[in-house]
Amino acid sequence: MASVLVIDDDPAVRITIKLILEREGHAVAVAPEGRAGLARLAAGGINLLICDIFMPGMDGFETLREVRKCRPELPVIVISGSTSIFDSLESAPDFLALAVKLGAVRGLRKPFKPNDLVDAVRHCLGGEADASTRQENRQAKRL
After folding, report:
1. Overall number of domains in the chain
2. pTM, to two decimals
C-alpha cells in the first residue's frame, strides 16, 4: 500500500483521515501546516499528499506550488470545508477547482464521506477498485 501525508490544521480532520486510510492498509503521516508538511515530504517515502487549502501560515495553494517544484509527479488531493470564501455569491471562485488547475489531481469538500476519500485515494494511486472489493478486503483484514 501507499505512504500518505495529510496536511491539515484541524487535528480532528487529520486523525479521521489517518484512521480511514490506515484501515485501507496505507501508512499515514500527518502535519499541522504547510511548512511542517514540506519538511516531512522532503524526508522522502511519500506516495500521495492530501492537503487542506485554508490553513494559517502556509496555505494549501502555496504548499501545492512548493510541492510541484520539488515533486511534480506526486499526486495531490486538496480538501476544504469551503470551496469559496464567498460561498453565497454566484460568481465566487471555486477554490477546489483552482487547486486542481494548479496541479492537484482531485478536490474534496469537507465534510466528505469515507468512501469518497478512499475512492479519491485509489484514483490518485492508479487503483480503481469497486466498493465490494474494498468491503471484501476489510473483512479479510478482520479475520
Report:
1. 1
2. 0.82
